[in-house]
Amino acid sequence: MYKKNIYLFFLLLSFNNLNIYADSLEEDIAKNKERFSQIALDIWEFAEMGYQEVKSSNLLANELKNEGFRITKNVAGIPTAFIAEYGSSGPVIGILGEFDALPGLAQSSSPFKEIIENETGAGHACGHHLFGAASAWAAVTIKNWLKDNDVKGTIRFYGTPAEEGGSGKVYMVREGLFDDVDIVLHWHPDDVNSANARTSNSNKSAKFTFKGISSHAAGAPEQGRSALDGVESMNMMVNMLREHIPQESRIHYVITKGGLAPNVVPDIAEVYYYVRHPKMTEVEKLFKRVVKTAEGAAIGTDTKMTYEVMHGNFSLLPNDVIQKLMHKNLSSFGGIKYSNDEQKYAETIYKTFISPSLEIGSQELVSEYTSSHSYGSTDVGDVSWVVPTAGIRTATWVPGTAAHSWQAVASGGTSIGLKGTELAAKTITATAIDIFKDPSIVKSAKKELNERVGKDFVYKALLGDRNPPLNYRVN
Q1: What is the reported pLDDT for 118?
Q2: pTM
Q3: Residue 261: count of CB within 10 angstroms of its CB
């Protein structure tokens, strides 16, 4: 009876400590809520595309500098990439922060589609303004905890530009900027709250440029060699190729240059391709086959072809050790509850969806822990193959919202987006503190990583040795 009472006493004490810890964390997060909410909205207004995020990058770097972080800018040869670090010993925990927008989605926060012009012609349809702000918010809160509790540890914020097609993190990994990191945490805006052991497709992209001979399309067609014919021939062969590739594959393209007038034979044309598959080795094989179609198209149309690899990402590699820890913390905070005004906004924007997969109200829940696969790609994948990495997704968008849509832009500029941002900041902070308090987590996470990648694994970027394409979003 005595042993049982002692056990219950310490169990009750541990629960009380957890509650005190949770209450303290909530208070620490609340201290900077107004500031980082405004930072998120400022970056939303900036809406800067990949490698052009000068204002967004500087805003985050300056805020962290004012908080006592050591700032290193222009890392990996990228002007908008930076590292902010606090501490000089103990475990090193990295937090990723993105801030690039997407082209052609300059919308408002209205629940109705409104085209509002801005100087960049872009919009935050993937919520990276929230991503960067919440990650910086968490970094500051963790820093304060380390300082207040005299805990040895290093928190490092990575300002990572150009996730959307620019592979900013890949250049940072290739540069060795994650070599001394023990754990990496990240998150992403979504219409659900989840912390799944998530995998993704690896990806390699390239722009294929065909050069021909210009001439009058009616008066002297025999003297012309159409670069557009080269592009269209390549596209036709790739579409025939689809029948003979693994079913998990994805290949998509857009013609970025095709000529300016029907009566002028185009002497230059360009097509932009993405090639995806869960395995990096298969992506390399598929990409070589796509290159062969381009070579054949050039021969058949008597044009010349060159191509430039634009980006390449590894698949996400899950780490159950820290992923389950993130899920525990996310679950402890719970989902997102709407105010009356937010509920009305959500109901209005919900009517614009076509066959939504979720219902309003699901944002109040946290998904059960499971393994899942995304057919999209992210440069977080490369990080996850060299450092134990885990992430979450929080409901910053109205349930049923598709990423890269005007509805995602809209929700991300409202209090709905900011509530998901706060939830992400809390979860990342709590997880980092758990790791600092229990160094054995690092050891277990690294053991899992080594088992997953295999003893013979050597990191080599899919995009090769090319320099960052700093003008890839410049027309």
Answers
A1: 77
A2: 0.91
A3: 8
